[in-house]
């Protein structure tokens, strides 16, 4: 029933994004831009200690400071103010410490909130926050996951252990494959077994817009604006944990400036702002500083990975065993326990491994809690498997692409049920790889690498491979339910046909920079045959988009986009009855194309927007039918979508300094049909940079006291455009079979694939110098020291150089430094 | 990121600024571009009672010649220096270093004097000013005094400028015709230098007649690599000779150990970067 139009199809059109003008100029409604009459401002008092008992909190001085309205601690809310929920207990006996927004007795990580100052201005609140006097008794604290595994120092002494949950998938037990121990034993006898320990460092999502919340408690419903990815889930959890009836809560995610998973949390700050606004009966606002954001918004990754891989001597992999230890931080965040478990279906990746076992132990520590960060579980898995495949290729002296080809699923074999039990619907790894090799100039770069190696060039060249697939488009509600995931995976859409010919599309997804307004408009313009400009996409307000499951896990287009399609088809079907009536024709004789119903074989016809106007007046409509053509739809796919791709990275390593510089990066991603190529390129480019940043630049570092050393962008080294290169990106097309658009998710692909490509390239450049591993981020120092033969696991010195000294400038001249000592 | 409240004054003359400084005493801070002071205030690392903004003092801006000397007002921005033909011609090393400072936004706000008095050893201005044998003119209640760059930097964030004084101008002897290069080593482009080397070289008759080398972030102050300078002087410009001379670049230095690298790594980097900077300066 797709409309065919004389105008060029909108789907596939490189449209500039309609939301960009307001987002890029900032002239829009960000949460922090909202000002309400009588609004009060909040400042949080946070624990500087990682683990401590609160012995006293003196708020008197702060209360008497200028323009302060109130100062609250947990003691002021004896019935609590809600809770940060864990919505995905991965086992029934998971150890899950209570996560209260405002802590009264014991802090379990630095940055926890112990008091909130409410004032008439943000500045007054900030000033008074410094006057709150909190006494702490420090407790022993544990930060590293391996240390925590020993259970010698407990992150939560009352729990008796740091071990939160253990989760296992075994292909022999599940009946999806053979016994991995048998495979390993056989290969030890007559084959190759390699065992590797890899580290996924801790990262900070570092979205552009800091988190902000405004709550208006006046009126019948409480309204909360929040810089969140999940307005619908937030509304549900507010109701579920505070007892406020859900019907009395309206949550609005206005324009939101990025998230990368970092805003799929219900936060202490949201609950506190809500509690303060309700207590005072006044609108209240809280906006975090960047320093607060880096320490108290959730972190990502942080895993120790042990992989054991068996293969025949000619490179056929016979088994893979994965053992993970994942650092959850101080609390089990909303899906924090489940993120590493997503790796269970992804370590086997694109390969036909006959035997597989996945083990994951999650542990609690006294660090910032950890949850989804762009890719969430799949980058970790892709890194592990793609690293060890390159290591196996090196061990066997094989070309890494040939090794992969020997093990991957061929395109004739789809649909293919993997050893982890996932059914991949479509893909063509051969096609993507062949194209990527051409784009990259694989053979020429290999030749240059050989030449540089032979001439002993101080700048060595390495080529890294990353072939990946991922499961995204979260999605099938029944599957999520079988994993004890708290939410469903369906998505909702509605279409309103306005009498003036305009179309409102309401989506339950909640964009925060992805470009849904443009893409959804393209889909609807094609489907209904209306101009792109006449489509308005509404989202993020639970009173307008009353039903939805929000945006994360590359789900919006493949689930939410398909819901839009189905709503549009319902509109077309409903309008047909009116069109037939108005045309005095039999509905069966009508054909819908290019936005018009035409009586087959005649010139007679009527546009769908004319039908919309006719139903507005409803002076003349068929008997027995309600006068309206608006429609909504809920879509729940049968399965995930499985994008894949081949990423090739060439890195120049300056062996004199250890500096790695990306020379060429080519990737061919297969994400099925593409709605807007420009948006796809943007997603891939951004994803690549974020994944490359994990390989080269970013790491959240705590010192021995649990203080975040990388607590500002001086030390948490985010890349900028100046640090990147132009990427070569293309696509192959194996349409998804789980939605009618044939689309697959692309929001996370670049991040998932790029990290191992970069690290593999660095290792390929210096492996002949005796380097086996470099821990991420592959800093120049680590690479150089690895070349010098030092341990690749060298810990970062957990100390930052001071650049903003309190006494700098016009300092007194009393002290004498070392001066010029040469 | 809201600073504590402070009084703000913006004098239009050096005399008025000195008066404000005298009045404010040790509770006053000077704002000279604000690229370090504003973060300090916003992160509440310091809460001065008075901020004295030098931004409206015209006499502190500009680049001029005084015989064989280039005179740069302390409030001249990086961007102004980069646009200056005088700097390009007579102090190529300063230009090379300033081109590497942060990003265009910061280069349009930050000033040479502000950076020098802030005296962050990782800053990019100290090493070239030291290498170019600049004199720094300091004005106080008792009038002007001139301090050689080699005596100006005293320690981490500490200079010869007294509490009641202002740095007013930088006098750089013209290094016309000298080759220059600044090798800045960073992980991401907007970072402070992990290590950087400022080298300016006078080549005559195919030989290095004279070389001046400043080191960034190899100690608590900018340093001169005097032993490398001595080894290069009168020597060949070929790679082997320069490498041999550069090997002592880190001798006697005491660089920091932090997230971006330990002291031993920085010492190694100093030798590599010195070689590269000198070779780039001689044009090989």
UniProtKB/TrEMBL annotation, chain A:
| Keyword Oxidoreductase (UniProt) | yes
- Which SMART domains does the UniProt entry name for this protein? Ald_Xan_dh_C
Q: Which Pfam families match?
A: Ald_Xan_dh_C, MoCoBD_1, MoCoBD_2
Region (Disordered) location: 794-822
Every Aldehyde oxidase/xanthine dehydrogenase a/b hammerhead domain range? 25-140
Task: Spell out the Polar residues composition-biased ranges.
Answer: 812-822
GO MF term (any one): oxidoreductase activity
**Keywords, sorted A to Z:** Molybdenum, Oxidoreductase
Q: This chain belongs to which protein, by name?
A: Nicotine dehydrogenase chain C
Q: Which species is listed as the source?
A: Nostocoides jenkinsii Ben 74
UniProtKB/TrEMBL annotation, chain B:
Q: What is its EC number?
A: 1.2.99.2
Look up the domain of life of the source: Bacteria
What GO annotations for molecular function exist for this entry? Answer: FAD binding; oxidoreductase activity
Q: Which SMART domains match?
A: CO_deh_flav_C (SM01092)
Q: Where is the signal peptide?
A: none
Residue ranges annotated for the FAD-binding PCMH-type domain, each copy included = 1-177
Keyword annotations for this protein, in alphabetical order, are: FAD, Flavoprotein, Oxidoreductase
Carries keyword Flavoprotein? yes
Q: Does the keyword Oxidoreductase apply?
A: yes
The protein depicted here goes by the name Carbon monoxide dehydrogenase medium chain
Q: Which organism is it from?
A: Nostocoides jenkinsii Ben 74
